[in-house]
Each structure stands twice: as structure tokens, then as C-alpha cells.
Design brief:
2 domains, Alkaline Phosphatase, subunit A, Alpha-Beta Plaits, binds zinc ion, about 400 residues, alpha/beta, about 20% strand, five-stranded antiparallel beta sheet
Length: about 400
């Protein structure tokens, strides 16, 4: 949905309630003796009924053939164009670890690396040191003080960390210090624009102290930084769609991405089941027009390569669906942010099964089982994921007509 102005012009401030239920990495492939995809194979009587009553299709998260990360894929589901309005890697890193990013902060992704006596990189990942070994080094870097700004260093995982700078008038247009190859030194800090010269100066002061702090360590005796970024200043849900929106998610990254688009993040426990997440929706049903509900384990089990376990998660969601349906949403969208076929143990570019159920407005198609092959024959056809929000808005009778 590239045309924000059109949404702003047409969105009404009343209409039906929308639930966007995202099973992370939902799409899949047949695998070994399984001739069906995971979703086709899973026993999902509720989703199948919704498919029979509603309309399904296949959505392309970013573009055909492109395998997305979960961050950009969710922005597409929320109606944004993640290529035109990219969210920098540093911001995604900060959101991914649940760092309390403030507006205007500059964040970057860091890698510990190994350098030789001449300062040349011999290993860009410092032997992939464990999180446990990295933590005391992260602590050292976190304690560095630079006049004029606050700095924060947090462990992400293994050799990866996040660096955030906080202060007045910072500018994230800073070039990577990662030369991308071994045999070279980490690159000096460089401003990408004139406006970021001051930020680059402050960062240089930090880098100098940080290099000193790691001297004598091994194998993590240096570091490289990339993906410097600031809040992408995306238009917010209330302004763009006139929706009061809430997020129900367990993992920090999804809460963070939801915050970027102006959703309220509702309280959940770290081990919440789909049923418990749906109960959170029920508890706030009267407070919001739009609920984004995120289910993570479909993606995790896909990445484990565990076909049966991924199917079991889908079945668990299906069993809990009556809790959501009992709230009588006007529009229920069930989809994924991307495919994660157990066969590939990874995200993939395959289009994602997507179902719209809106009893007052949808035209039922001829499919009666939620899944990839049925989606190929469904009434929604194949479409870019960022068209989903305008569709959901239309089915909730929240869009005025365009022109007289
Ligand atoms: Zn994902």
C-alpha cells in the first residue's frame, strides 16, 4: 500500500473490528513422505470452516522471489512498503532484543571480531564466541563514557551486539565500519552526509575507547559496526487508518515493530500459548479497533526442520480459535509473515496462505480447506502483502468511496 495519502483520505473513524492473526513462517512445502504442506497436513477444522465461508489466496511479503526477514515482512502486513521505507538493521537489532529505543536514538549492529598485531581482521566473527564469553566484553563496552551522549551496548547473541547512541540532534547516516572481508582493518567511522558529521565525531570517540577496552582480549579483540539507523518515522496506525490498534505478541521484535507503527503493546507472559494470547485480546476487546496477534512457534519449528511439530502448533492455534471467534470480529485475517518450510529449515520466498473471513462482506470462494494449493485457487488470488490492510479496512467498512 504505497499510497498513504489515499488511506488518509478514505479511512473512516468508525467501522468494524479487525483481527490480524499472524502465524510466523506459516507457509511451507511438502517434505519427504509428506505430500502435503504442513498447513495442508495439519488438522484444522476451524480454519477450514473459515476458508469455506471466507476467501483465501496467497500473499507475497516483499516481492516475488524475495525471502524476507520477519521485520520487513511484518511491515508489509501492516501496509507499508519495506523497500521504499526500510527499517535499518540497527533498529531491528534493538527491537529484537527488546531494547527501550527512544525516538532519535541511533542504533547499529555490532560484531566482535579478531584482529592480528597489525590490526587486520583475521576472523569477522571472533570464532563465533558464545554469548557467555561475549557478555563480560559487552559489559566493558557498555561502561564506556563519551561526553555529550549516552551509549548503550547490549548482547544480541554469540558474537553479535547492539550499540545505541542517545542524545540531542543525532543523525543515523553513518557508514558501516565493516569492510566485509578479512585481511583489512575495521573501517574508520565516516559520516554518510554532512548532517551526520557531529554524530560521527561522537561515535569516533566511543570507538577509540572501545578498541582500547578490548585490547588484550582474545579472540574478541576488536569489533565492526553496521546498519546504523534511526526510527524510520513511519506514519502511525491512528493517523493512517484511523485505527486504535493493539499488539499481542510474545517475542520482543514483534512488539517493537508494532510500536514503530503506533500500536499499543498489551501485556503477555514469555511462555503464553495461543489460547492465552487470544484471552488477552478478549480482555481488551472493547478498547481497540484492531488487534495484531502474533504466534511465533510455527516459524521456530519450521527452522528446526520439524514438520510434525510445526503442524502441531498450527493445530494448537486452530483449537484456540473459538476464543477469538466468540468475540465476533467483523474481519478476521489469518496469514503468515513469510513461509518457513521445514524442508528448508529457513525462511523462504514462497507466497503465504492468507485467509479473509468477514461474514458481512466477503464473497465465499470455492475452496474449503486452508492451505497453499487451495490458496492458489482462492478468490484473493496472489497479491502483495501490503494490500492486505486496505482489504481488511474495506471489509470492516472503514473506507469511504474514492471520488464521486
Ligand atoms: Zn517471521
Amino acid at each position: 500500500m504505497a499510497n498513504f495519502d489515499l488511506m488518509r483520505e478514505l479511512a473512516r473513524d468508525e467501522g468494524g473490528k479487525i483481527v490480524l492473526l499472524v502465524l510466523d513462517g506459516l507457509g511451507g512445502l511438502p517434505m519427504g513422505d509428506y505430500t502435503q504442506t504442513t498447513l495442508e497436513y495439519a488438522n484444522t477444522p476451524n480454519m477450514d470452516r473459515l476458508a469455506a465461508e471466507g476467501t483465501q489466496g496467497l500473499s507475497h511479503p516483499i516481492a516475488r522471489g524475495i525471502t524476507p526477514g520477519s521485520g520487513p515482512a511484518h511491515l508489509a502486513l501492516f501496509g507499508y512498503d519495506p523497500i521504499a521505507r526500510p527499517v535499518g538493521r540497527g533498529i531491528l537489532s534493538a527491537l529484537g532484543i527488546g531494547f527501550d529505543l527512544h525516538y532519535g536514538d541511533v542504533a547499529a549492529r555490532g560484531n566482535f571480531c579478531t584482529v592480528d598485531e597489525n590490526g587486520l581482521i583475521t576472523d569477522r566473527r571472533a570464532g563465533r564466541i558464545s554469548t557467555e564469553l561475549a557478555l563480560p566484553l559487552v559489559e566493558k563496552l557498555n561502561n564506556i563514557q563519551v561526553d555529550g551522549i549516552q551509549t548503550f551496548v547490549r548482547s544480541e547473541k554469540e558474537y553479535r551486539f547492539m550499540l545505541a547512541l542517545r542524545g540531542e540532534g543525532l543523525d543515523g547516516a553513518i557508514e558501516d565500519t565493516d569492510p566485509q572481508i578479512t585481511g583489512e582493518s575495521p573501517l574508520p567511522v565516516k559520516a554518510a552526509t554532512q548532517g551526520s558529521e557531529r554524530t560521527a565525531d561522537l561515535l569516533r570517540a566511543w570507538v577509540e575507547k572501545a578498541q582500547l577496552a578490548l585490547r588484550g582480549e582474545y579472540p574478541a579483540n576488536s569489533f565492526i559496526l553496521r546498519g546504523f539507523a534511526q526510527d524510520p518515522k513511519l506514519p502511525k496506525f491512528d493517523e493512517l487508518y484511523k485505527l486504535k490498534a493493539a499488539c499481542v505478541a510474545v517475542y520482543p521484535m514483534y512488539k517493537g515493530v508494532s510500536k514503530l507503527v503506533g500500536m499499543d503493546v498489551l501485556e503477555t507472559g514469555g511462555d503464553f500459548t495461543p489460547e492465552q494470547e487470544f484471552q488477552v485480546v478478549a480482555g481488551h476487546w472493547n478498547d481497540y479497533d484492531f488487534f495484531f496477534v502474533h504466534i511465533k512457534p510455527t516459524d521456530s519449528r519450521g527452522e528446526d526442520g520439524n514438520f510434525e511439530a510445526k503442524a502441531a502448533v498450527i493445530e494448537q492455534v486452530d483449537r484456540a480459535l473459538p476464543t477469538l471467534l466468540g468475540l465476533n470480529p467483523d474481519v478476521l485475517v489469518i496469514t503468515g509473515d513469510h513461509s518457513t518450510p521445514a524442508r528448508l529449515r529457513n525462511h523462504s520466498w514462497h507466497p503465504v496462505p492468507t485467509l479473509i473471513w468477514a461474514p458481512a462482506t466477503h464473497l465465499p470462494d470455492l475452496t474449503d480447506h486452508f492451505g497453499e494449493r487451495q490458496g492458489q485457487r482462492g478468490g484473493l488470488g496472489q497479491f502483495p502483502a501490503n494490500e492486505l490492510m486496505p482489504l481488511a479496512m474495506a471489509h470492516a467498512l472503514r473506507l469511504e468511496k474514492y471520488g464521486a
